[in-house]
Write a structure and sequence with these properties.
The complex is a heterodimer of chains A (about 260) and B (about 325). Chain A has helices spanning about 1-20, 20-45, 55-80, 90, 100-130, 140-165, 170-180, 195-200, 205-220, 230-255. With about 260 residues, chain A is an all-alpha fold. Chain A starts with a helix and ends with a helix. The model of chain A has no long low-confidence stretch (mean pLDDT about 90). With about 325 residues, chain B is an alpha/beta fold. Chain B is built from eleven helices and 14 strands. In chain B, the strands form three sheets. Chain B has a six-stranded mixed beta sheet, sandwiched between helices. In chain B, strands 2-1-4-5 form a four-stranded antiparallel beta sheet, covered by helices on one side. In chain B, strand 4 (about 70-75) and strand 5 form a beta hairpin. The two termini of chain B are about 40 Å apart. The relative contact order of chain B is 0.13. Classes of the chains: A mainly alpha (about 260), B alpha/beta (about 325). At the A-B interface, helix 1 and helix 4 of A face helix 2 and helix 3 of B.
Chain lengths: ~260, ~325
Amino acid sequence: MTNTTLLALLHRDLLVARRELGTFILRVALQPLLFTFIFGFVMPRQGLVVQNYTNMLLPGILALSMTLSGLQAVAMPLVIEFGFTKEIEDRLLAPIGISGVALEKIFVGMIQAIIAGLFVLPLAWLLIGRGLDLQQTNFVLLILVSLLTSWLFAAFGLLIGSIADSQQVGLMLNVLLGPMIFFGCTYYPWAGLSAVPWFQIAVLINPLVYASEGFRAALTPDLPHMPLWLILGALVGYSLFLTWAGLRFFRRRAVD
Amino acid sequence: MTRQPVIELKELQKVYKANRRRQSGEVNAVNGVTLEVISGEFFGLLGPNGAGKTTTVGILTTRVLPTGGLALIDGMDVATASSAIKQRIGVVAQANNLDRGLTARENLLFHAAYFGVPKEEREKLANELLKRFQLEGRANEKTDGYSGGMAQRLKIARALMHRPAILFLDEPTSGLDPQARRTLWDLLGELNRKGQTIFLTTHNMEEADQLCNRVAIMDKGKVIAVDTPAVLKKQVPGGYLIELRGRAPEAAAQELATKLRALPGVVDVSVNDDLFRLYAGHAEGLLAQAMHLAGQHDVMITSAHVAEPSLENLFLYLTGRSLEQ
């Protein structure tokens, strides 16, 4: 029964997400693609950034789009369903543990994050065009980092969606996403931060750093990147922690 | 009809801790409730807003954890066997919690899918319920444009999609216009006649009186009376209630009350500020006599009201307050 219920919940969320495909694509792809266009297309032609900067940029853009989509795909609907419409109630009454409903949300977030990645990667690649060297791509690592990144940020979305109410969520995402994106090694490699040592250490608290560096390690393994053990260890550690915290707060919100 | 309890509450308690963010103190929402509901029964929990009805239903439907006592459904503890209990219950919450992302038909189909109802069966059942609840015409629309009555009917249909043993309804007709309310009453009555066990909360005494086999009257977290509506109504001394509102000095009011008590047929009189309540075995003639007495004591009556035996009168008699307050 648990699996049947879980699949039905998943089916419901994917159906609703598919109906909102237009807004979904806008939400996840617009910002990364604008960045790609300016930093990967316009600025190299102006000679403002060196040509192979784009090799640094692409993994970060991929990490960013998956991060945003995974996080928002879970947090935004959850805030509405818990708050104003209370429509989550019907699903909380499904014959499955409360944690099952929460885990399903993480799955949905992961699926949407991966779709966002599959959408943004080829588009960004097309935009940047020649000069991009992905010959050395490690596909196994790429899949692994994609899965971990989507898990991490879907779980993060679960936590935010369970904590925030509808009045706070906009502010919360603004306050959170701004620093996370700019300090997330999306537009610059972590190794290069050795120029500002304290900053290089400080950004380690940011989970997006490991996603960006993970994609760098997978897509352009020859370029400098964070050691693999640290990337994978942090991605797994953060994912586990956020899943635990997300489930805990989800339960607290769901049951009085 | 098998006569076994499907719901048992034993000294049930729910204390909400003080919440600084909501600036609320500790609340004893449910304070030692003991009840039994039998299979096939239409059971009503009647009480004013804030009596603890929704919390009680919340506990029975696994959404609220009790802080004391026991709540059993089919002999299973709701606090521990929640998944098994969710299979047995259908819940119609007070708020419109329909799935906004789905059409009306999909609301029904997905609900059944969550419960593992096979595809063919759920489609058949959805069609049946949409027809029976007069929602066929707009079944493929999303529910944003639904009227209150339609949304309520759809919520009930949805709760029935997995054929629950017990249907819970929390204030199902509050906010509905009289006609929509009447339609819903007919529908619920018919369901119950076909054997559906129903547990309903309401602050509408007419609803409890008309629909329910048995009614528990709840106030301030406690059940203060349980029985069939007929028996409950007989508990009001006399049965009839005459309410007089009038301005009078304290001494005159007390004297008038004494005189009123002596009128033939009057069982009890209570005075609350400017409100005189006469409980009496009949109403005919008594109003005129009471008015006459009031005139003699220089009490100016500004309004008068006669109520037939009702659960409202009983609530008034037991608590001194009206259900609508």
